[in-house]
Amino acid sequence: MISAVIKKAISGLFILGSTVANGSPLKSDETVIFFPTSAHLNSDLQWEVPIHQWVFEKEEQSILRKLTHKLLTEFAESLDISEEQANSEIFKKRVMWFIVDNERNKKLDIVVEGLSDNDSPQDSIHTLNTSAANGHGKTTIYIPKSSTQKKWLKYKALSEHESTQEFMGVTQLIPETGLSVISDIDDTIKISEVLDKRALIRNTFLEEYQTTPNMPEFYQDLANQGAYFHYVSASPWQIYPSLKPFMEQHYPSGSFSLRDFRLKDSSIIKFLQSSKEYKLEKIRTILQKYPAHQFILIGDSGEHDPEIYAEIYNEFEGNIKRIMIRAVPGSDLDDTRFQTTFAEVPGTIWRIVNDEESNMQALN
Fold this sequence. Notes:
Blueprint: H1 2-22, E1 31-34, E2 37-41, E3 46-57, H2 63-78, H3 83-86, H4 89-96, E4 101-102, E5 109-113, E6 125-127, E7 136-144, E8 152-158, E9 168-173, E10 177-183, H5 197-206, H6 215-224, E11 228-236, H7 240-250, E12 255-259, H8 268-272, H9 276-289, E13 292-300, H10 305-315, E14 320-326, H11 335-341, E15 350-353, H12 359-363
Parallel strand pairs: 2-9, 10-11, 10-13, 11-12, 13-14, 14-15
Antiparallel strand pairs: 1-3, 2-3, 3-4, 3-7, 5-6, 5-8, 8-9
Pfam families: APP1_cat (PF09949)
GO molecular function: phosphatidate phosphatase activity
InterPro entries: APP1_cat, Mg2+_PAP
């Protein structure tokens, strides 16, 4: 009897250990968001496709969720945001993404859609790396160039559970040569007022997002010329679900590089106002993926974009076609700053652009 119990216990431990090691499947009450990425061709003529997923549970009544929401409400009040604003629907919708229950060690399979008829069904199925403590997981899959002629690769999560909701993802397949735009988001294409912490919180959590003047039309002109877009921001990934419809309405599709953030780890104000090293790393990675592309770097004068782009130019001089900096009211617009920052960048490359100017004229 004792022997049988021990054997059963040991067997259970092995099963548990196997589940932990291999990851657990997606549950019916869990959600997946795939973030848009960009792929490049390697020397074997395969698309290297980065997949980035976020797995979480939107558990409305969890104790942790209630406590965190209370914390955020108190935080809002400390910034002179009224109780009425803190209880507004837009605030609740925006902060919801910061207080979901992230799911770690989740194993996902995806199926890639629209591959060549020469590929077997099994070739379209890929197993992703398990999610980390923050619910995020990253995997690179490989798709032969001959398998698809599409500009965007579409895929969806496979689930054992019947559901009316499909979790879809996209990756842009960017050829070896072309024109690419690397764009900041806050105060470049979306009004955020990063330099004013109260205005930043208001624009992030309490008000409808607003485009910066002329930028949607300018970006559409660039897209019509065949440009590919990479959006690099210091904002946390939790902003993406709220940002997605705004971007889809006003700006061309592209990849997103945002930052990992957990509310309990840091002040969100300090987080949103510190970005230089992160953005340098992400921008370098993009240029290294597309060494034969020409790049337009677009940012603003609010914080470090001029300094970041000047440093990038010095490292990738042959790839940088233009640097365009939106002049943000209230920021350091002293000509000495820009002359010093861009001292080693030809004057034909960089331009400070006011909202009243034509961006296309500034580009040309």
